[in-house]
Amino acid sequence: MSEEVDFTIVTPSYNYSRYIRECLDSVRDQDGVTVEHLVYDAGSTDGTLDIIREYDHVSLTVEGDRGMSDAINKGFKVARGKWVMWLNTDDYFLPGALAKVKLFAEGQPDADVIYGCWNFVGGDGSYQRTMNVYPLRKMMLAHLCYIASTATFYRRETVMNEGHLLNIDFKYVMDGEYYNRLIHADKKFVYLPEVLADFRLHGKNLSQKHLGARGIDEQLDLQLQYAESIAIRRSYAPQLTSNEQINSVIDALMHFAFKVQRQFLVRMHRPNKN
Question: Domain tally for the chain?
Answer without folding.
Answer: 1
